[in-house]
Amino acid sequence: MKISKSFNYALTITVSLLFATGLVPAQAEPGKIPITTSSEEAMKFFLQGRDLGEKLRFLESRKYYQKAVEADTTFALAYLNLSFTLPTVKGFFETFDKALALVENVSDGEQMMIRAIEVGIGGEAEKQLEIYKKLVAAYPKDERAHNLLGNSFFGRQDYEAAIAQYEKALSINSEFSQPYNQLGYSYRFLNKYAEAETAFKKYIKLIPDDPNPYDSYAELLMKMGKYEESIEYYRKALGITPVFFNSHIGIASDFNFLGQHEKAREQLQKFYAVAADVGQRRVALQAKAISYADEGNMDKALSELKKQYTLAKNSDDYPAMAGDMNLMANIMLELNNTDQALEFFKKSMKLTEQALVSNEVKANARRGFMFNSARVAIKQGNLEEAKVLSKKFHKAVEKIGNTFQDRQAHALAGMIAYVEGDFGKAIAQYEQSNLQNPYNLFRMALAFKKNGDTEKAKDYCKQAAEHNTLNSFNYSFIRQKAKDMLSSI
Which of 294, 319, 356, 372 stands the most exposed, by the fewest C-beta atoms within 10 Å? Predict the structure, then answer.
C-alpha cells in the first residue's frame, strides 16, 4: 500500500501526514521537531499510535491516538494524526478542525505540519510544498520531516526528488521503515522494477511481522503482471493481519485482471463480513463496484455505489456522499447518459456546499465541478461551452498552483482538441496530463491512431491495457477497450 497524496473532492483523504509526524521531545535531540503536550501519558500513547501508523496499521493506531487526546485534550498533533485514522470523511474534518483550533499553541514545526494539511485540503499544492520545504530547512535532522517532503514530491509525480528525500531520511535513521515503502513505489512509477523490488525486500526484512511490506511487494508483482504470485504475497499479509483491507482489495484486483470477477467479489464479500467499521465496509462496496465496471456491468456497479452512499447518508457524512455522487456521475458519463451525469455532479456540489468544511475545500470542489461540467459539455457536443469552462478552470487552477488540477486542465484541453479533429494538439495536451492515469494513456493511443502514428498508438494502447492499476474506476472503464484496440491495430 502506498501513501496517497491526493485530496481531490471525490473525496480521497491524504494520509501522508499521519506517517510524517513521528516526533520526539524537543530536548531529546537537536534538529528534531518538538511535540507539544502537557502529559507524559499522552505522549506515550501518541508514540505507540505513531509506531503503528507508520506501518499503515491505521485501525490499531486509532485507539492510541484516542487515548492520547483523552489524556491531553489540548494535544494538537494527536488530534491531527487521529483525524487520518477515522472511518468517515466527516470524522476527519471534525477532528482536524480540533487540531487547527490549537495551532497557535504548539511549536513552529507542529504549526507548519498542521498548516500544510490545511492548505492541502484546499487544493493549494504550491503553498503546501513550500511549507514542507521550510519544515525540512528548520529541522534538517528529522528523518520524518524529510519523509514528509518526499511524500509531497511523490504526490506531484516528481519521483526523483521524492527518492532524494527518502534516501536522506534513511541516512538519518536506517531503521525508519516507511521510506523503504515509498522508495519502492517511486521506483515502480519510474518503471525501475528491479530497484523497486530491492526496496520492498529491504522493507520486508526490516519489519517482517507487519502486513504492509508484503502488501506493497504484492502490488509490484501485480504491476508486472505476475497475478498469481501477487495473490500469494497478499495472502501473507492477511496471514499476519486478517483485516488488513488493502490486501483484500489487492487480491480482488488480481482476480479482476485474471478475468475471474466472481472470485474477486467473493473475496470482497469476505472482507465486508469482517470489516471493522463503516469506512472499511464502504471500501469493500466501492471495490465491488469497480469489479463490476471492469466486467462491463455498469448497472451492478451503480447498485454497489448506491449502497456505499447509503452508509454515508446514515451518518450524515456529506463530504463522503458528495464523493459517491461524483463516482456515480462518472459511470453515467461512461454510459453517455450526460443529463444524468450532470445531475449527479450538481448533487455532489450541493452536498459539498452543505458540508461543514472550510471555504477553501468548497472552492476546490467548485473547481472540480467546472472540470466535470466541461467533460459533460464535450460529450454533449457543446464545444463552445466546454471551451469557456476549460479556460475558467485552467485560470482558477493557475491562481492557486494545484498540480493535480493543472494536469486535469491539460487533459480537458486535449479532449476538446480531439473532438475538433486537431490530433496533434490533443497529443501535446495529453502529454502534460496525468500519465499515471490509464485513461489518459488510452486517450493518447486514440489520438496517435487518428494522427496516423500506428506505432505510438500501439505503444500507448499497450501501456493502458497492461497498466494493472490497483482498484481504479478509470482503469476499469478502459481496460477492455484498450485490449480490444490493441488486438486490432
Answer: 356
- Confidence at residue 26, expressed as pLDDT on a 0 to 100 scale: 36
3-state secondary structure 117-142: HHHHHCCCHHHHHHHHHHHHHHCCCC
What's the count of helices (H) and strands (E) in the chain, helices before strands? 25, 0
Cis peptide before 356 (omega within 30 of 0): no
Predicted pLDDT of residue 323: 97
Task: Report the distance separating Cα 118 and Cα 414, nearest Å.
Answer: 32
pLDDT reported for residue 234:
98
- pLDDT at position 5: 33
Contact of 443 with 418, CB cutoff 8 Å: yes
pLDDT tens, 99-154?
Answer: 999 999 999 999 999 999 999 999 898 999 999 999 999 999 999 999 999 999 99
Question: How far, CA to CA in Å, does 128 sit from each of 115, 121, 225, 357, 437?
Answer: 8, 10, 35, 18, 23
CA–CA dist 146, 162 (Å, integer): 9
Find out whether 132 and 148 touch, Cβ atoms under 8 Å. yes
Residue pair 456/448 in contact by the 8 Å Cβ criterion = yes
The sign one gets for the Cα dihedral 24, 29, 33, 38 is positive
Residues with pLDDT less than 50, the chain: 4-28
* 348: nearest Cα among 6, 9, 8, 89: 9
Residue among 128, 127, 17 nearest 79 (CA): 17
Question: Is 45 in contact with 68 (CB distance < 8 Å)?
Answer: yes
Say how far apart CA 330 and CA 324 lie, in whole Å.
10
448 three-class SS? helix
Phi, psi values for residue 191, rounded to 5°: 65, 25
Contact status, residue 129 vs residue 155, Cβ threshold 8 Å: no
Q: Which residues contact 168 (CB under 8 A, 6 or more apart)?
A: 143, 146, 150
The SS3 of residue 224 is coil
Under DSSP, the state recorded for 17 is G
What's at 71, amino acid-wise?
A: A
Q: Is 381 exposed, middle or buried (0-12, 13-18, 19+ CB in 10 A)?
A: exposed
Domains of the chain: 1-153 (1.25.40)
Is residue 471 a contact partner of residue 249, using CB atoms and an 8 Å limit?
Answer: yes
- Cβ atoms within 10 Å of 158's Cβ, excluding its own: 16
Q: What is the DSSP letter of 255?
A: H
Q: CB–CB of 177/206 below 8 Å?
A: yes
- pLDDT value of position 7: 32
